[in-house]
Amino acid sequence: MLIFENAGGMDLAATLDCGQAFRWKEGPNGWQGIADGRAVSARLEGPALVLEGAGEADRQFWQQYFALDLDYPALLEKFCSGNRKLAQCVRSCPGIRVLRQPFFEVLCTFIISQNNNIPRIRAIVERLCEGLGQPLAGGGYAFPTPQVLAAQTEEDLAFLRAGWRAGYLIDAARKVASGQVREETLRGLSYEEARALLMGIKGVGPKVADCVLLFGLSFWQAFPMDVWMKKAMAQLFPRGIPVCCRGFQGIAQQYIFDYARRNLPKGAEEKKKGAKKPASHG
After folding, report:
1. The sheet that has 2-4: what strands, in order across it?
2. Is the pLDDT of residue 4 over 50?
3. How far apart are CA 52 and CA 159, in angstroms?
4. Fewest CB atoms within 10 A around its CB: which of 87, 185, 278, 279?
5. Nearest partner of 73 among 242, 251, 237, 253, judged by Cα
6. Structure pTM?
7. Can you tell me the distance from the alpha carbon of 225 to that of 77, in angstroms, rounded to the nearest whole number?
8. How confident is the model at residue 262 (pLDDT cuts 50, 70, 90)?
9. Residues catalogued as catalytic
10. d(CA 254, CA 108)
11. Strands (DSSP E) along 63-168, which ranges?
């Protein structure tokens, strides 16, 4: 068991079920998830984050994964004091945190997320891991490596029932496995350069690239735009993102996105979809 005494006000449900990560499920004893081949059960006990299945050797990994090294209370105070409408968005769900997820997993899951909804994304990701990932000692499967996925054909991936996304997944895996797209390289580039490199992958447009930069590479300035965010920005911030967010626009975006989904009126297309839960930025 691994305990972080102060989770900084994090809300696990709001963080793990907001469409940024797709390998967490809520159970009777907390949230079960797998990241980087580590399977854990996470729960909050007062201000503390408790991870069953993790030990001291994993402390740094999970501290970074849940962004516990960022002073979120101070950051949110900066947001709230800097703009009244942004304060409204933050206070609607202040426990959201932007995770630091494994790069290749984020790249693949957000390729899968395109024109998709959260339940279907999770199902495809689960089939991908069960079909091509290594089994874990405690149950479940690791995310497939780029090398394993790169060796597949679109016919091989028919079991995913991912449609045209299968070809995009293979192209992404082959570019990563060959070193044409390297995590270390991306981290050393400017935001604009890293975004351009990612968009060289088949099927990766500006939105998916920004999701990968934000959720998989900690480019906090990345600002993914989808239908909800375009609506939110037009109605709440027609002059653009507030200056108080500079450098952390992507983190502010999560609060704006969540507020928009909860509070802005749905258009005809969203009403037609009914109970389908949209992806965060897919």
Report:
1. 2-4, 48-52, 38-45, 30-35, 24-27
2. yes
3. 32
4. 185
5. 251
6. 0.91
7. 24
8. confident
9. 207
10. 20
11. none
